[in-house]
């Protein structure tokens, strides 16, 4: 994928075998396959971060559960929205899975775990780099204007 290309997330999703109407069981099977391939994947994100092994295992069960699967579905639906994803030239700590999951939560008006966003990003084949020492991944895409709006919102909340 070229950095200058604009990527229609529906194309990425189609390559991953995702359809907006994919049922819970079929998506659960895809998430289970991901979790087998990536044992560090949990509802917390990718890796242990500051979590204990027991907490990590509980978070893996949460991601594989019905709530976790529906959160992945919400992320996939957001990624399949009409706004094109534009690959960024390089990873940025402003474009972490945690920051993007907050955008999905805002748009979906419901909770989404960091790990659900990471799993959805993996399913559609987005480029990502682990943010060492955390459970986040830096994701190489941008939705024009979205991260700037989040940054301004954070600055306003810090000033208040």
What does this protein structure show overall?
- The chain is built from 7 helices and 4 strands, in the order H-H-E-E-H-H-H-H-E-E-H.
- With 160 residues, it is mainly α.
- It has one domain.
- A hairpin with a 6-residue loop joins strand 3 and strand 4.
- The longest helix has 14 residues.
The number of helices is 7
Instruction: From the alpha carbons, calculate the radius of gyration and give it in angstroms.
Output: 15 Å
Low-confidence stretches: 1-7
DSSP strand tally: 4
Main sheet? 2 strands, antiparallel
The gross shape turns out to be globular
Order of helices and strands: HHEEHHHHEEH
In whole angstroms, the N-to-C terminal distance is 41 Å
Number of domains: 1
Mean pLDDT: 77
Strand content: 5-15%
Keywords summarizing the entry:
mainly alpha, two-stranded antiparallel ribbon, disordered N terminus
What is the secondary structure topology, with strand pairs?
Layout: H1 9-15, H2 24-37, E1 41-42, E2 45-46, H3 53-64, H4 66-79, H5 97-108, H6 114-124, E3 128-130, E4 137-139, H7 146-159
Antiparallel strand pairs: 1-2, 3-4
Helix pairs in contact: 2-4, 4-6, 5-6
Summarize the structure.
It contains seven helices and four strands.
């Amino acid at each position: 994928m070229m950095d200058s290309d604009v990527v229609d997330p529906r194309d990425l999703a189609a390559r991953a075998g995702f359809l907006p109407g994919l049922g819970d069981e079929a998506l659960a099977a895809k998430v289970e396959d991901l979790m087998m391939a990536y044992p560090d994947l949990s509802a917390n994100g990718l890796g242990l971060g500051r979590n204990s092994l027991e907490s990590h295992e509980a978070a893996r069960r949460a991601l594989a559960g019905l709530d976790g699967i529906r959160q992945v579905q919400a992320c996939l639906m957001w990624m399949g929205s009409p706004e094109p994803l534009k690959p960024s030239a390089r990873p940025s700590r402003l474009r972490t899975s945690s920051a993007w999951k907050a955008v999905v939560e805002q748009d979906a008006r419901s909770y989404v775990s960091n790990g659900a966003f990471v799993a959805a990003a993996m399913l559609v084949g987005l480029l990502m780099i682990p943010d060492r020492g955390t459970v986040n991944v830096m994701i190489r895409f941008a939705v024009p204007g979205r991260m700037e709006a989040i940054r301004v919102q954070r600055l306003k909340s810090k000033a208040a």
